[in-house]
Design brief:
seven-stranded mixed β-sheet, 13 helices, Aspartate Aminotransferase, domain 1, 14% strand, Aspartate Aminotransferase, domain 2, alpha/beta, homodimer
């Protein structure tokens, strides 16, 4: 057997899996987790109106969804106060990041990101043959000005920034992001991942400027809206970018149940506010748990909290492994500098109770072991 | 505004929409269709067990789906009697066709298909910069030997064949497909779209030979399984192909509700048999309606029937327009030769009743007009 049939840069790809799912870990372990706090899903769930609509939609799932995503796009446009022609629905932000790379990245093109930033973006850049340049985090955030300088020097097609940052939960103010946008090189597009915008302080997302062809902003129903399984994200961008998404996307890629669920979810802002309040309570509880264990939590604008385990990456890895062994699904950053942390998703109290019980034990075991 | 930022072959893409959805047509018309018989969805619906599981799954839709699609892949592998390592789940066959083009088609690479064959495949070939070579249909089928000869001459990366054929419903026997497979040039992969395999006579699909690196077969839950809205298809292929899908796919692209629905659907083969029987009854009814209107239906192995309107493409287009104006959603082939037909999906009797009423009127109007 040979790989010569594949496109050369595809044949040369490594086998990367950005995130092993908790189900795969459960299969490998042979038993389920007791707390699911690793993937930044919202165990507070989606709006009950969305759930009811999705249950009804199950019976109608013999129909293709509307490939124009008209109702959902219109509802998002109304919510954002921008024309629908500036919105593109995708199979989660991940799907849109893949299309973005297809649209902008030819083999050899430079793309600038941060070591430890979203690995699924890197996965798509590499799959399109991009030349990925990873800068270090600075003070647990992406370093906006160095990203810009590097992009200018490398004539980068894309810069990736998450705001709030994943995996750390840190954030830049909208003013700071706006200054970065103003300084973008003309040939560079800012991939601004705002997956966690809904749980961030007001002003974290700069005002929308949909005329700017150098910025694509990405939002999702997977986080605060509690619809990770629905696989619905969207991009906000200039018309030429939206039209180009339309030239390359899988028009029938969006599932009907998710499309309908997201449509109802975005119109239930009262529920979203309650979910965001629940996330905030969970953030404070996780932060308090860090303190009560003698550790420091990184202040977070996202629906998770990174806890600084106080030593090096090997120690934090030992804490993580201890939690997993105690049936608590959490994750940790792997990149140098931020690898001192574990990352705990905001979730329901029953899950956080399990974490509260097991975290001191995992810490003690790690301290004994290392 | 400029498009110079996009990858050159992307910037040069035309704006193609392979299939305008019925919802978009309804919005343009300002009123709903009375019969939905155009997209080869199954209005017989999915297994009640799948519906029940999807309703339950709605409440759990805050969780990401298992990115390995382990349970579904295992159930498909068991059903097919092949190892799970030869199965890849995708966002419908469409999603898998897009990835296939990404994997095999570099700008300028030749791809051979048939004029009038699946336009979504062409869409993806073009989006990856492929050089699309379209041969004529012969006797309302894809012309296997000429496709082969052309692929050999052009050193094509891919040949596309649908069996049963869409949009005509015709089919080759498994033996004939097997002979084509045996004659494939070593550098060419056969994209064998078996979306309608479930409603075809036994022996239409050749035996699976998952070791063959030159054949990728595509199946779906959108047709006989009645789950078009779920967006779940799968590819059956050699391990190197499956592993390469895994290197480029959107790992979290599959929605949780659809994943669970398909898992239950494939295990309810008794229901599938009843749905296939219902499709067969509808095929005969559509064929009888053609006869009673003095026309001929093309014998169909698929979940639709092409009706030869007996004159040229302009006449058939007039019949189609008359049906649409009478609130009957059907479609028609556009390619020369097969454009004399309209295509009617197998559906529930209430929908076919509307078609039965309106078809003679649309025919009469077309005969008057032309």
């Amino acid at each position: 057997m040979t790989t010569r049939r594949f496109v050369p840069h595809i044949a040369a790809l490594p086998h990367l899996v950005p995130f092993v799912g908790p189900e795969a870990m459960e299969r490998a372990r042979g038993r389920p987790f007791r707390a699911r706090l690793g993937a930044n899903e919202s165990s507070f769930g989606p709006s009950p109106k969305a759930v009811a609509a999705m249950r009804d939609a199950a019976l109608e799932n013999w129909k293709y969804s509307d490939p124009e995503n008209y109702d959902l796009t219109s509802a998002i446009a109304t919510y954002l106060g921008v024309p629908a022609s500036h919105i593109m629905i995708g199979e989660g932000i991940d799907g849109l990041l893949g299309l973005t790379c297809m649209m902008f990245v030819a083999p050899g093109d430079a793309v600038v990101t941060t070591d430890g930033a979203y690995p699924t973006f890197n996965f798509h850049v590499i799959a399109h043959g991009g030349r990925l340049i990873r800068l270090p985090m600075r003070a647990d955030r992406e370093d906006l000005m160095t990203l810009l300088d590097t992009a200018r020097r490398e004539r980068a097609k894309l810069i990736y920034v998450s705001n709030p940052n994943s995996p750390m939960g840190t954030w830049w103010t909208g003013d700071e992001i706006a200054r970065m946008i103003a300084a973008l090189p003309p040939e560079t597009v800012l991939v601004l991942d705002e997956a966690y915008a809904d749980t961030a302080p007001a002003g974290t997302a700069p005002p929308l400027d949909v005329a700017n062809p150098n910025v694509i902003r990405y939002r999702t129903f997977s986080k605060a809206y509690g619809l990770a399984g629905a696989r619905i994200g969207y991009a906000i961008a200039s018309r030429d970018v939206i039209e180009t998404f339309d030239k390359v996307r899988n028009h029938y890629g969006i599932n009907r149940v998710g499309q309908i669920g997201a449509y109802h979810a975005i119109q239930d802002q009262a529920y979203l506010a309650s979910a965001v309040a629940a996330v905030d309570r969970a953030r404070r509880r996780i932060s308090d748990l860090a303190s009560s264990n003698g550790l420091t939590a990184i202040a977070s604008a996202a629906s998770f909290v990174a806890i600084d385990c106080g030593r090096d990456g090997a120690f934090a890895k030992s804490v993580l492994d201890g939690l997993l062994a105690r049936d608590v699904f959490v994750r940790k950053p792997a990149a140098s500098g931020i690898d001192r942390c574990i990352r705990v998703s905001c979730g329901v109290d029953t899950d956080l109770d399990v974490f509260a019980d097991e975290f001191p034990r995992a810490l003690a075991a790690a301290r004994t072991a290392l």
